[in-house]
C-alpha cells in the first residue's frame, strides 16, 4: 500500500492506497473522519487485506464509503465493510447491476442502516477541513464505468481527484 500526506500540514490528512490487485480501494484519514473509496474485488485475500488494513489503523467507523460504480472489482468487499464496520454514509451512483456482488452489497447496506446518498454532481460534503465535491456523473449513462462517481477532495490548498473507472466519454 501507499501512504502519503495531503495538505499544507502533511500528516493531517493521509491517503492510503490499499493493495487489492486489479480492483480499487483507497482510504482517506482526516482529523474529521474517514472516507473509503471502493472495496476491491471478490477475492477473499483482497477483502481480508482491506479489513486488516483498517483494523491495523484502529478504524471502526467510516464517515463516508464511496462506491464509485457497481463493477465487481470495486464492490467485492463492500458487504464486509458494511457488516464489519460502522458506515455512516454511502455515496454511490444511480445505477444497478445484476451481479451477485451487487445484490450482496445491497443486502448488507440495508442491514447496516447507513445513510445512502445518490451521487449528484455539484454536491459537497465535509469532514472538518476536508471537503469532498462530487464532479460526476454528470448525467445517466448506460456504461457502469461512465457512471463512476468522481470526487475532488480538497484540504487547504491541495486537491486530489478520485475517479473510479471514469473514462473520457463521460464528459458533458
Note down, in words, how this protein is organized.
With 172 residues, this protein is α/β, with parallel strands linked by helices. Helix content is 22%, strand content 34%. The chain contains 4 helices and 11 strands, in the order E-E-E-E-H-E-H-H-E-H-E-E-E-E-E. The protein has helices spanning 44-56, 72-75, 78-84, 100-112, and strands spanning 2-6, 13-17, 26-30, 33-37, 61-66, 86-92, 115-118, 124-127, 130-136, 150-155, 158-162. The longest helix has 13 residues, at 44-56. The protein is globular and about 40 Å long. The model has no long low-confidence stretch (mean pLDDT 85).
**How would the global form be characterised?**
globular
Class from secondary-structure proportions: alpha/beta
Alpha plus pi helix count: 4
Low-confidence segments: none
**Strand content range:** 25-35%
Q: What is the CA-atom radius of gyration, in angstroms?
A: 15 Å
| Percent of residues in helices | 10-25%
Following the backbone from N to C, one meets helices and strands in this order, namely: EEEEHEHHEHEEEEE
Q: How would a textbook summarize the main sheet?
A: 7 strands, mixed
Distance between the termini: 34 Å
Strand order of the largest sheet: 1-2-3-4-5-6-7
Please tally the β strands and state the result: 11
Mean pLDDT, as a whole number?
A: 85
